[in-house]
Amino acid sequence: MTLPDRSALSRRAYVRALVAVGGGAALSACLDVTRDGDDTDPVPSGTDDPDSLPARQHAWNEFSSRDEDGNVQLPAHHALVPVSLASGAGDADADTEAGAAAESDSATAPSEDARRTTETALRTLERAYEWSPEGLVFTLGYTPAYFDRFEGSLPDSVDLPAPEALTAREDPAFDEFDALLHLASDRPDVVLAAEEGLFGDRDELNGTDLETDLTGVFDRHDDRRRTGFVGAGLPASKTDVPGVPESVPEDAPFLMGFRSGFARTQASEDRVTIDAGPFAGGTTQHVSSMDIQLDVWFGQDNHHQRVSKLFSPTHAADELVGEVGDELADTSGVTDDGIASAEAAAREHGVVGHAQKAAQAREDGNPPLLRRDFSTVDGDRPGQHFLALQRGIGEFVRVREAMTGADLDVSSANNGILHYLFVNRRGNYLLPPRSLRALPPAAPNS
Ligand code: HEM
Questions:
Q1: Any idea which of 69-83, 101-115, 184-198, 296-310 has the lowest mean pLDDT?
Q2: Which alpha helices (H) appear in 311-415, and where do they start and end?
Q3: CB of 256 shorter than 6 A to ligand 1
Q4: For ligand 1, atom 1, which residue shows the shortest CA distance?
Q5: What is the pLDDT confidence band of residue 145, given thresholds at 50, 70 and 90?
Q6: Domain span at 67
Q7: How confident is the model over 69-93, as pLDDT tens digits?
Q8: For 332-368, how does the pLDDT look when each residue is reduced to its tens digit (9 = 90+)?
Q9: How far, in Å, CA of 112 to CA of 91, rounded?
Q10: How much is the pLDDT for 35?
Q11: Is the CB of 390 under 6 A from ligand 1?
Q12: Which of 35, 93, 109, 343 is the 20 to 30 A CA-CA neighbour of 294?
């Protein structure tokens, strides 16, 4: 892997580029820069008592800080690490000679050894780092393809279909590897070190000895690895990347220039948690990775048009948003009237807002999705890894249909933000409860 050129980049841009590259050399370079910079506080250690940690892998909110309006602050740096079961991690009883020689145990159930190793490695992360964005939070999710190897099928209480194209204008590739590890921290060096510890040749993490790692259990798909960032100032530090214009506002937390993920327009962790069956306490995750036509968004549209398309024409006319969403407190400001007036907005203003459309999928006034998406410049182009948690994937599909707004009589350029997004990949995952996070069978009770 070639490391980015330090002399050509600001410190923030350099660190972001190192996270995107990944690996041991990137980690050393990142540690050098963070030592010289302002990230010199020690990283808080984790716990030796696994029972003190939450039963849900997706329990991040109560461990996260909130802004002055009470909105949860997502960790600043993210890595999505795709993996498949390694050959040799399969169950010996089910393992044939042919299976042992195969590149991946795609047809073989995982062995108890592989399960134990996975759980031990994940517990080591929890001992090394406090379960919080100042330390590390993570999830391990499994695709429908992973569960295909088992004789039993997933219980009815888990809604996890294979991913599919969700709009007429997309032709995405699908995440068909076995699992996805989501590592997230405010510290870029922690994200890199955690991945290196799990898959590289480190013998300690944050002062904690590594008993084992995942190299014999999972193979990484380096070509599918994804990274990103969220937080005021981070997008504006990426203007070294082609397609990221200088006009990205300095304080914007996302590349498209506005705050998102307000407390009252997010589902609670309870709302997205599977509440019955052996995977109760888990959730489902959808990840779509998309390019954003950011130069057109900032070059052709003015602030008024961007607010109309992202929020609603009323938000723009009444100046409800501020430069980057600073006028909004803990809600997007989309009201019941705003939701009901989507059609009228199309007719009268020729523009419909993204938030206004997506809110049509609320249930009894409550949003069904907990969005933990983040911006990216993977592949040196602007994009978004849209990561959402919901009780079942059907709920995501329903919200995505509302976002499409197929019935609205409006040109594609003015139909929310659809015109600017190009979906490249989609993946669906089950995030089991923590007790079943290590290579779960499809039917745990049977
Ligand atoms: C680059 C891509 C995207 C950007 C920049 C973006 C931005 C926003 C913003 C600014 C809001 C209003 C503030 C808030 O409620 O947090 C919002 C709301 C929302 N967005 Fe997006 N969004 C993007 C993609 C998507 C996608 C792909 C979906 C999937 C269906 C989605 C679903 C939602 C939902 C469910 C809401 C809240 C609706 C409600 O209030 O009930 N967004 N988004």
A1: 101-115
A2: 313-317, 336-340, 342-349, 354-358, 393-404
A3: yes
A4: 384
A5: very high
A6: 6-137+178-261
A7: 999 999 999 999 999 999 989 886 6
A8: 999 999 999 999 988 999 999 999 999 999 999 999 9
A9: 7
A10: 66
A11: no
A12: 343
Task: Give the ligand 1 atom nearest the CA of 384.
Answer: 1
Instruction: Give 263 Cα–ligand 1 centroid separation in angstroms.
Output: 13
Q: Which atom of ligand 1 is nearest to the CA of 288?
A: 27
Q: Which band of pLDDT confidence, cut at 50, 70 and 90, is reported for residue 16?
A: confident
Give nearest CA residue, ligand 1 atom 35: 358
* Total of domains in the chain: 1
How many helices (H) and strands (E) are present in the chain, helices listed first?
Answer: 14, 13
- In a domain? residue 127: yes
Residue 102 lies inside a defined structural domain of this protein? yes
CB 272 near ligand 1, within 6 Å:
no
Here the tokens at position 12 are 């923030």
CA distance 432 to 440: 8
Residue nearest to atom 6 of ligand 1 (CA): 260
Q: Determine if ligand 1 sits within 6 Å of the CB of residue 127.
A: no
- In this prediction, residue 94 carries a pLDDT of 54
Cβ-based neighbours of 212, under 8 Å, separated by 6 or more: 117, 120, 121, 124
Output the CA 393–ligand 1 centroid distance in Å: 17
pLDDT band, residue 137 (cuts 50/70/90) = very high
Pairing of strands 370-371, 383-390: antiparallel
Tell me what pLDDT residue 96 has: 41
Residue nearest to ligand 1 atom 32, measured at CA: 358
201 inside domain: yes
| E strand or H helix that includes residue 360 | none
Would residue 257 count as lying in a domain? Answer: yes
